[in-house]
Amino acid sequence: MKGNIEIKGARVHNLKDISLNIPRNKLIVITGVSGSGKSSLAFDTVYAEGQRRYVESLSSYARQFLGRMNKPEVDFINGIPPAIAIEQKVNTRNPRSTVGTSTEIHDYLRLLWSRVGHTISPVSGREVIKHSIDDVVNYIASLTAGTRVVLTAPLVVPENVDRREYIDFLVKQGYNRISTEKGLVRLDEPGSAEVIKDAQTLDIIIDRLSTSSAPEEMSRAADSVQTAFLTGKGHITLTVTDEETTQTVQFSDKFEEDGITFEEPTEHLFSFNSPLGACPLCEGYGRVIGIDDSLVIPNENLSVFDDAIACWRGETMRQWKERLVFNAEKFDFPIHKPWFKLTPEQKAVVWNGNRYFFGLNQFFQHLEEKKYKIQYRVMLSRYRGKRICPECDGHRLRKEAGWVKVGGRSIQEISSMPVSEAWAFFDALMLNGEEKEIAGRLLKEIQQRLGYMLDVGISYLTLDRLSNTLSGGESQRINLATSLGSSLVGSLYILDEPSIG
Fold it and tell me: Which pLDDT tens digit goes with each residue over 267-308?
């Protein structure tokens, strides 16, 4: 029958010569009591035949990489499209699997941040920029015609090298002038070696230009810039003089700022499954073996005064708590406030201590030093477990990845947002023309997958949520969002209890 999947004489498992027509392009529900043959019809008959026919349409070379399915016991099936099955699966036990990786959203985020991310220096907050020869030449070309430009490169005299010999070497290389803080010095003049010896800064003059749009002038400028980058080991300075002012502009072909050489963004930098991007302390797991905060403070409704800190209870260890309580007024610490109401800074004081008392870190260090005694080893074992990695704060990535921003946000911040907030962020994200050209397809894929997650009702999940902490219903909905996110048309989807949970 046209527009239907026609099944005749299905005898798989407990099916008794079943014949039926299933309308295409419709949502069909197969329901019944347990053991009535629902899965036998949906998976072992319809899906098996749809998948088998699709695989057989491929070349023999491609088929060897795909699982072969047996032909179901049925007289014939007509009108069946390629089939995709979403079965109920046990939650993955892989500790590296997250909502972001299982939905493949994290893969697109890695590409987006590596392509259009801006690296921001944590020292000054300035963007880290690596200049090319074209950047410098384009800057020179943008100046008003007739503007004078002096191109210089920083000069460092090698140690254990005679200055006179080094000057002779520079003269042979074709350089005649050096700029110091006191002015220009000609290398062929007597006494130039002494001037160089006493100078605080040395810049060798590579070329003097007068801006012009003539092609030969731009070609000369490009050659001079290339020479300057080589001579100055990646650093050059332009002294620009017009009719009224003189200014200096610095360029560097190194990816550095504030004296720090930064890692250039690549997709591996944002992958916690890669040694290039994983936090070096926790190796991309987000947690390390150590003192577990939840064991040290088991009840966050209690205050420090009311023995919120479990290891400082009892007569033996009470002195550690008493020292904090007696000195709390000196640094304005609220000992009667419940632990969950304390600010992160106040909690950090309890852990790190100050000049008035020893904190929890010093306490456990003391236990480590005394662990040759059995009672201290036993006490340490009570509070040891998996804790959030202090290096990456549980985000799994090395700190350099957090310095790369898109729309003012790092990839760690986006991963820790609920899906609804992440979707709103990308919906409002403003990019310039070049960035839109690069990231347009990536943004479309990210928003589409986030939109499917919103549609199936898991907007409250975060992308960094571990897959093995999800309920059965949440896992099933993620599987739905992942499969439907591919936007296939004309395919047959077979869903096993999609409303579970």
Answer: 999 999 999 999 999 999 999 888 888 899 999 999 999 989
Backbone angles phi, psi at 182, to 5 degrees: -100, -5
Residues (pLDDT < 50) of the chain are 1
- Chain-centroid distance of CA 80 in Å reads 42
State how beta strands 83-86 and 492-495 pair.
Answer: parallel
> Phi, psi (5° rounding) for residue 139?
-65, -45
Q: Which residues pair with 275 in a beta bridge?
A: none
Instruction: Specify the length of the chain in residues.
Output: 501
Q: DSSP string covering 157-217, please?
A: PPTT--HHHHHHHHHHTT--EEEETTEEEETTSTTHHHHHHH-S--EEEEEEEE----HHH
Question: What spatial distance separates the first Cα and last Cα of the chain, rounded to whole Å?
Answer: 37
Residue in 298, 367, 378, 278 with CA at minimum distance from that of residue 339: 298
Q: Within 10 Å of residue 493's Cβ, how many Cβ atoms?
A: 16
pLDDT at residue 462, rounded to an integer = 94
**Cβ distance 255 to 121 under 8 Å?**
no
- The structure tokens listed for 113 are 């941040």
Q: Give tens-digit pLDDT for 439-480.
A: 999 999 999 999 989 988 899 999 999 988 888 788 888 887
**C-beta of residue 464 within 8 angstroms of C-beta of residue 100:** yes
What the chain holds in terms of domains, given with CATH numbers, is: 4-81 (3.40.50.300), 99-117+406-495 (1.20.1580.10), 133-261 (3.30.190.20), 287-388 (1.10.8.280)
Three-class SS state of 301: coil
Its sign, for the CA torsion 62, 65, 67, 70, is positive
Q: How many CB atoms lie within 10 A of CB 86?
A: 17
